[in-house]
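Below is the data:
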Amino acid sequence: METRDVVAGDAVQRAITVLRSLPEPDSQEACIDRIQLMEQAVRMVRGDQAVTTSRFVDYRQVEESHLKIPTSLQLKGIEAEVGFARGESPFVGAALTSTAIALCSVLPRTLAALTEGRVSEYHTRVVAEQTSHLSDAHRKEIDVLIAHRLGKASTSQLRRLIQGHAYRLDRAAAEARVEDNKRQRRVCKDPAGDGLVYVTAELPAHQGAAVMETLTRLTNQRLDQGQALDTDGTPLGRDEVMTDIFVELLTGQTTADGVAAEVVVVMHDTTLFGADELPAWLLGEGPLPAGTVKNWLADPNVTKSLRRLYTRPSDGQLVAMDSKRRRFPEGMAKMLRIRDDTCATPWCNSPVQDADHRHPWAKGGPTSWENATGLCKRCNRRKENRGSSYTGSSDELTVTTPTGHSYTVETRPPLAEIKHWNSDPPAPVGAIDIAWATAA
């Protein structure tokens, strides 16, 4: 480590020591005072991180220019490196990187407000994102126009103020952005916790209004006809009825509960056939209470099939066969999705989409369980960038970046981790996990 890095590390350690030595607040007023001071300090640190991130990008760009790397191929994967350094996903790393670059190039007053502790990092991201489609000159102008509102306006107020100025300064760019957003319309699914998910559609405003009008009309009809009853005859609320209609319209099911698509649920045998309270795991969503899943599987409208997955008795890790082919067999790929569920790259939140050879096939890597990693498509492409490598085993993954920094995570089925949370060494468990799939 270079001398300046040692000095910086010592300075940070001294600051941490000072913070830990502060006396405990002795009143409500003192608690609020301290919260405010700590928030200001955090914001100032975030300002330093933004400046350092921008400098990191500059260093990398200079290096790659000297290496004669084409401009179109420069800075590949840099957002993931920033995300790793801050313990965040590559997606968040991309937002942090683009914000840092904007703050240090075209938003000097917003950067000053952050480094002085007057505005939050999140609000600086709002400023950067809401002006990203504008020219540098217009971004600098908006930076001046909103400076007096930074740290005083709410997120919604700040976003609308910036949009108003942006539409006034460059109407054509605003209209082009609206059209571009229409081409990027999509439907997303994210976990909401406790057995629920968010299904979100990003679509043009008039289409969204039409969707809600249709759902409202059909909901009113069902309520007026007295057909809004649960399976036990209990009246359903308006939101419950609207949600059921939403599912029925999209899936073509007669009832919302009659799922007609494959849904994989992993349960330990002692839960499925016994009284174990170990939760089930809904692939792509996360844990569900054992009783909830048992009741769902008992529904006569649900078509069920049973599959066995063998595990190591010592720690619950899945075991599987190898293949001579380059492409992972479907059975092994499904086991990989069950094991990793979420992309194995540290802090990535995307679902597993690709079965990847950790040691590349082109370099002699086998198509085997030991050499398999579940990744999302972006991380699978990102690992091929210059200076990046993914190494490890079926039990762990180590990602090494071009700067030589390494990040290691475990790759075990989530249920195995829950089962063995207090076992050292892990206590033996049953040798079979159950994947229960419903099919149309």
